[in-house]
Amino acid sequence: MSEVNTGPSLGGWTRFVTARPRLSLLVALVITALAVFAGSGVADRMGSGGWADPDAESTYATQALEREFPASQPNLLLLVDSGSRSVDDPAVAAEAKRLTDRLAAEPGITGVGSYWGTGSAALRAEDGREALIAARIEGDETTAAASLDRITPEFRGTHGPLEVSLGGPVAVQHEMQDIIQEDLLRAELIALPVTLVLLVMVFGSAVAALLPLGLGVVAILGTNAVLRGITELTDVSVFAQNLTTALGLGLAVDYALFIVRRFREELAEGAEVRDAVGVTLRTAGRTVLFSALTVAVSLAAMMVFPQYFLRSFAYAGIAVVLLAAAAALILLPAALMLLGHRVNALDLRVLLRRKRRKFGARDGSGATGVSAEPGAGWGRMAALVMRRAPVFALATAAGLVVLGLPFLGATFGTADYRQLPSSADSRVVQEEIRDGFPGSPSGGLEVFVEGAATPAEYADYRGRIEALPGALRVDGPVTSGEHGYFTVLAEGEAVGQEAQQLVRDIRAEPAAFDTSVTGTAAVLVDSKDAIADRMPWAVAIIVVVTLLLVFLLTGSVLIPVQAVVLNALSLTAMFGAVVWVFQDGNLSGLLGFTATGDIETTLPVLMFCVAFGLSMDYGVFLLSRIKEEYDRGGDHEKAVTFGLRRTGGLITAAAVILAVVMVGIGTSRVTNTKMLGLGIALAVLMDAMVVRSLLVPAVMKLTGRATWWAPGPLRRFHDRFGLSEGESKPAVEGNAGDPARTEPSADGQGQGQGQGQGQGRDRDTANV
Is it the case that residue 345 has pLDDT exceeding 80? Predict the structure, then answer.
């Protein structure tokens, strides 16, 4: 038995989490119950927007127009269908005017106007059978949603000769929020039972399989309570709940797999329960802590962006990662203390193993197949890859780059009603308006003007805007005191390249008064600029902190650089698929969405931060075991083989389970959520099954022992501050028969040539 297991002294943390395990679990149960209460109704306080930069020119102009000219910024449209009659029929007009007056009298509604009151051709359908009532619901997204819920039963439906439907941006956002909540519940109902089945297959023991689910539930409920508190301070996107569910389950499974497996290994080697918990916390527990920090840093990088859509994912992500890690490092050890050897209870694979012992094929030594070393397949794969390292490295890297090439043609846009399923009421209304009405009653660009100006100055400015390329029509100005606005209709799509360039041209046009431009295209331009300005900072934060953390884990200068580069390569397939599928529309029929020809601007940023963090999660698991074995034996290639043999199945199982959760999220009827779920699922699988299995061992073979080099000052820094999974002490001489634990020779190479450490206990445990 190794030195680390011969009665290791219990550290302060181990004593803390194992002293009173029943009390720890009882306190956790009470806190979880309080979290259920505190987090109830959190979705109702979340918004479905958040793509705009709050400090941008377009945001200022939107707020100013809402304050000074509420009729210029309608967010609610009532589509009035007169059936077979003309909208100018006296009976139709009389009923429509009554509806308009009723809407204007509703609290929280301003800027009400209609075709029957203004005579505007833009508010009348080209076939003369439909017309619009436009209004603005005041307040933030939560207030506007409450007002919409209040007035919808009063106005939707039949009113005499009229049939009324509701649309506009506020209706689209509200319906999107409702659909996301429904889809999230369905995703949870799909993911939980499938995850449980997979965990039973991985652990064998039903008892062990329930532990990760328990941690995931604690992390999710705790994060909902945290988000509920954050909504009191700032805006939070409803999309963040999807990340809470996915990461809560996914990371809880990852951490529990790693800790429970190590605990079972120590028990199988003969350690007492308390000692096994202590060793597990000092080894796998350290790795979990490092993993949580790397994921949290990747998600925290989204805090540098001004859009609350991205910041919301940072709030949710940091909370769920830290809570999942805390549950794994506090609650799980307490549960393991109480369970002890019963963690292997209810082994559902007993019958399968008996059958294999009875009928298993025998090798030359007469041993049945069941006695073959678990994980040997991963060891053979590592050996094969390292024998042909240049081929595997080049072929894998080239393949990943090719898969990412479609992203070079990415076009960035903004989310609109086409995110919703085709049957959604607000989408049907928006499409009726798009196809049947001239112009865009709630679209175009608005130029807000401030300061005293003469009619001649207004006319001169209008003429210069009309002369700009891409300007189709300019209306206005509409003035009130020293404020006014122009409405500009751009050629082509409302958020197309022509409209975006027109925004820039209008902003560059000099005027005798202050101007600011808003509208959908202007919001998109400002959002893209904000992301471009902050993206280098976000990437720098992720890269620098990742380099530091991986160095602290490994003590190597080269491994952190490899980790960053290989993680980036693992994301190429995801980004290529996002463009090929969701922008270009391939598989849109199969997946059930409408391709818009672009990608929402903030989505690639979000997917990069989440997927990079998850890739580092798996990378830390693999590197920690490689480092542990290298410290014990000093043989570089055997350390790589050992690491892949011990973690290959574990990482693959964790990735498959997380992918199942993300695919559940990807069944959403909202396109952005579908893109997020399916894209990250693909990235996770590519990272676990391609990068960790093929590219990492190939690259580490090519770099050889130089992989572990560090200059003297950095080595001394790591000796003082670094952490690793292993105990770093060599095995005692009594383990001569276990070459992976043998004292390294003078040249640093392990003297034994047999199988890696822990082979015997692997046979006795449910090796993942």
Answer: no
